[in-house]
Amino acid sequence: MFKTLANWVVSAITIFIVATYVPGFEVDSFLTALIVALVLGIVNAFIKPIITILTLPITILTLGLFAFVINALLIWGISAIVAGFTITGFVPALIGAIALWLINLIIHFVIFPIKAA
């Protein structure tokens, strides 16, 4: 339970950091970032696997880089749903998706290190 809540808060912090540095990627408040992180988690759990399976051939052809395009489109779609979260185009969504992945990767390695067996 604690790990899930910590992951949610870390994702919200990451969204807030990306909104600070990526032009065209805007979040009104930290509460909005928490809501975006929650909606993004739900979308990643239910919708993303279906889209990933449907686009598997192009993802394989691009050696996995199309996954960033999928993430960007999902984040861009979430900006249409959540009030206070604005993305002005596909390029900020793509840069934001890459930045979210990179920052989340670094933070999770620091906070939740991989334990040796």
UniProtKB/TrEMBL annotation:
Domain of life: Bacteria
Keyword line: Membrane, Transmembrane, Transmembrane helix
DNA repair keyword on record: no
Keyword Transmembrane helix found: yes
Pfam short name (any one): Phage_holin_4_2
InterPro entries referenced in this protein's UniProt entry, alphabetically: Phage_holin_4_2
Membrane-spanning residues: 5-24, 30-47, 59-87, 93-114
PANTHER family in UniProt: SLR0284 PROTEIN
Name under which the protein is recorded: Phage holin family protein
